[in-house]
């Protein structure tokens, strides 16, 4: 049932308080007072009316342990009335540590100001709620990722959407509104609600385009240098999210790259600026030609193009970029996984266009490239903590899945020449598989895909190690007859 559908009777809370109920789910009265809005199947017996505050308190007590299973709206935590300014202010340190380095747009002071204004400003309220959901989504990982946390994220995202309201005439976009949509996109991606996540990603891009960031050179009056840089970083963040979804879901893109990286901004740490620029450089490789090849819009892919794309990636990895030493382990983890993921994509393009060969001297054109990548990852993974990867959300786990799945296909399809080589390949794959399985946000479908392929690989290894026995000679000494 639609969560806003009207019903013909009053909810339990309105009956107890003897006030008018508008029959919605939740109704206006319950939404205003943070009460559970439950419609009982049977009429509730008349109750003696007491003081208004006492009735509300008693109703909260009697419903604190129940929730209507027919409610179609996101599950609201029992104590959701605790989501006041203090709750969101307490999340700011987590955000600045774990989220801001990869989404360096809103400053700590700007976030604090929005939280303080959320009771009187709907845009600020929507931002604060989305900020809370995104921060919990990216920082509550591992054993801290409880069902209650998931419910809270869903609730905050839903309330953020409600607070936004419709777009009215004379609407004006803002950096805060665009970032709100990106936060919502992040939440719905982890909830595996792909269509809603895509909607809010495109919503963010529309808001970014309305800011005309790509035309700031002609802006009058001019923006301050930090504001110009901040808006450029917002633009590139939208670019990165859209390019990732274009690969993941085979979608077209609408946001072209800016001509340059964000201008230097002395108001943010150099390590954050450098790490963000490195990620931009990687996603710039997903240019128009790359996406056309990936989406199958043209078929003139050549070995020279594959070599050039792979060389661009390998060149960055072998020659350590300037400023790389400044990066945090979290930033390095993002760069390492993203780089290997992109190399895997290039190899898959070559494979789908039958450009690979077992005899090729070029690694990117070799059928065994994923096997070598598996061995390389085995040497790099011990230097990366699970926390440094998981904090980037579901997107980076999806990249690891794509890499691992590709490696599995090659191990299964291309037998090794010796038992020793087969064992080494399987050991490298098993090591990577165990690492991927430690991530709680790897969904059940992808986990099952890898489990099934792992089972095939183990069966293959068993056959190699235990070949069919030859027929023994009747005169042999081992003949029991």
UniProtKB/TrEMBL annotation:
Residues 461-481 are annotated as: Disordered. InterPro entries: Carb_Metab_Trans_Reg, Zn2-C6_fun-type_DNA-bd_sf, Zn2Cys6_DnaBD. Residues 10-39 form the Zn(2)-C6 fungal-type domain. Residues 466-475 have a biased composition (Low complexity). SUPFAM superfamilies: Zn2/Cys6 DNA-binding domain. The keyword Cell wall biogenesis/degradation does not apply. GO terms for cellular component: nucleus. The keyword RNA-binding does not apply. PROSITE patterns: ZN2_CY6_FUNGAL_1, ZN2_CY6_FUNGAL_2. Keywords: Nucleus. GO terms for molecular function: DNA binding; DNA-binding transcription factor activity, RNA polymerase II-specific; zinc ion binding. Pfam families: Zn_clus. PANTHER family: GLUCOSE TRANSPORT TRANSCRIPTION REGULATOR RGT1-RELATED-RELATED (PTHR31668), TRANSCRIPTION FACTOR, PUTATIVE-RELATED (PTHR31668:SF24). This is Zn(2)-C6 fungal-type domain-containing protein. It comes from Rhizodiscina lignyota.
